[in-house]
User: Fold this.
Amino acid sequence: MKSLLFSSKMKNKTNWRRIINLILIPVTAVVGDTVIQYMNPNISLLLKCFTDSATHFLLASFSWNYVETSSMNKRIHLVVSIMCGLLASIIDIDHFIAVGTISLQAATSLPHRPLLHCTTLFTIAALLFAIVSIRIHSIHLLKLSFIIVTATWTHHWRDGYRRGIWICPIGSTPPYSYFVYLIGLIVMPMGLQFGLRFVSDLVPKSKVKHAAPVYLI
Ligand SMILES: [Zn+2]
Assistant:
């Protein structure tokens, strides 16, 4: 009876943590976007870019922290959440690659969107990883595909409320309202968490024999 009460208390605690984590995602977005918007125009461009990158990082890290629920090792889970955030913030490196210089001024005034901002590219790559993960019975590869989706979608979704989502080679969606953007930031990790759980169930049922799934990350 005591252990039953204890496990129900722990479950409640975990649920509350997850709800707080979910709320933190749009809150971080609002804080990050507001800070950038109201920064003194004379303030260095470097600080603005750093704040922008940090916002992308936190949104992806919090999102992965919500998406992944089966991790047994807290430390590895933290490292993977940080890696997801880093992947999200490194995407903007394509601005520098496109202009061929490390000048912030040139990179931030690019007239078109560079390659890593194409949502189709990462979605197809992640989809392929997911299919292969089912075929080869690899939970690691499946989680990698969801990490890629979490990192890139949160980044593209945040950029998208100003410029739309770039579905290359078809074109771009129109920009959407700030409210839709915030709702999307909540719905996205919820959907991805459901998707990961659903596809994870398919992995142990794959036809590859003599291989047990390893739940590490
Ligand atoms: Zn971007």
Observations:
- Residues 91-92, 117, 155, 159 surround zinc ion (CB under 6 Å).
- The chain has one domain: 2-202.
- The chain is about 70% helix and 0% strand.
